[in-house]
Amino acid sequence: MMMVTLSTLVTFLGFWCCYQTSHRAELKAAAGVAQWLRQNRVKAQRIGIAGMVAGLMLSMVTFGIGSGIFAYLMILTVVSSLMIILAPLGLMTRRNIAVALVICTILEIAL
Q1: Alpha-carbon torsion angle 81, 91, 25, 19, nearest 10
Q2: What three-state secondary structure class fits 103?
Q3: Residue 92 per-residue DSSP state
Q4: What does the alpha-carbon distance between residue 64 and residue 85 come to, in Å, rounded to a whole number?
Q5: What's the CA gap between 109 and 61, in Å, rounded?
Q6: Three-class DSSP category at 87
Q7: d(Cα 109, Cα 53) in Å, to the nearest integer?
Q8: pLDDT tens for the 111 residues of the chain, in order
Q9: DSSP 2-67
Q10: Residue 34 contacts by C-beta under 8 Å, 6 or more apart in sequence?
């Protein structure tokens, strides 16, 4: 129960950690965790890759090996494209992410 939402959340956090280490992306001023991630790029990349692998494992446990890999690739594609599009616009706030996760959790439980 709630494994898809959990897999999406872990994949999102992993990609976000890797996104914060990017030299090419125009990142806004950071504070707190984002600032620490930018200062410790190697650790942040390891944490991000570990998060993405954990998301892959959760998808594989939920859907099986073949379907899990496919589902993970779809999740990663959606998460990465949304982050690349919405982060520079300032729409990737904690509140927006929390609202989206609550909606996904409710839909997953209801359906």
Answers
A1: -60
A2: helix
A3: -
A4: 31
A5: 18
A6: coil
A7: 25
A8: 579 999 999 999 999 999 999 888 777 777 788 889 989 999 999 999 999 999 999 999 999 999 999 999 999 999 999 999 998 888 888 899 999 999 999 999 998
A9: -HHHHHHHHHHHHHHHHHHT-SSS-PPP--THHHHHHH-HHHHHHHHHHHHHHHHHHHHHHH-HHH
A10: 20, 27
**pTM for the predicted model, two decimal places:** 0.90
Q: What one-character DSSP code corresponds to residue 90?
A: T
Exposure b/e, 19-50, CB count within 10 A at least 16 = b: bbbeeeeeeeeeeeebeebeeeeeebeebbee
Tokens standing for 82?
């949304």
